[in-house]
Amino acid sequence: MENALRACCKGIKIGKILIHREGDNGQQLIYEKLPQDISERHVLLLDPILGTGNSAVQAISLLVKKGVPESNIIFLNLISAPQGVHVVCKSFPRVKIVTSEIDIGLNEDFRVVPGMGEFGDRYFGTDDDDDSQQVVAPTQLSDQSC
């Protein structure tokens, strides 16, 4: 996603936040390097897949801690699970989410289904062709705002 952004927005300042999923026990911040003036900017937060929302909440929390107003953050992704959308909206109601598709939910491994598989594996051509996916019913979002 970064390469496409650089191609259309030459000269844009880019920061990096790397969050790694450690099984089902949460997220781990591995690396962050952000522009010095991040608090004065509008931020496009790019993540190809929004699953549980935990990584997004951690990344947005870091941006807010660095002084970025919630209303200046636009979270862009390709595919979302309804659970992740709800978690992000509940935690940060002023953050805007732009996604191309909201899939039906998460499987028992907390992966978006039907989804696109592991994005990194797809991108680097290392997916294992494991199509066995069992869906965990998504939470009911009809009575929740966002």
Automatic annotation (TrEMBL):
InterPro entries: PRTase-like, PRTase_dom. Pathway: Pyrimidine metabolism; UMP biosynthesis via salvage pathway; UMP from uracil: step 1/1. SUPFAM superfamilies: PRTase-like (SSF53271). The keyword Transferase applies. Its cofactor is Mg(2+). Residues 133-146 have a biased composition (Polar residues). Its EC number is 2.4.2.9. Residues 125-146 are annotated as: Disordered. It is an enzyme of class 2 (transferase). Keywords: Allosteric enzyme, Glycosyltransferase, GTP-binding, Nucleotide-binding, Transferase. One of its GO terms (molecular function) is GTP binding. The keyword Phosphoprotein does not apply. It comes from the Eukaryota. Belongs to the UPRTase family. This is uracil phosphoribosyltransferase. It comes from Hibiscus syriacus. The lineage of its organism: Eukaryota, Viridiplantae, Streptophyta, Embryophyta, Tracheophyta.
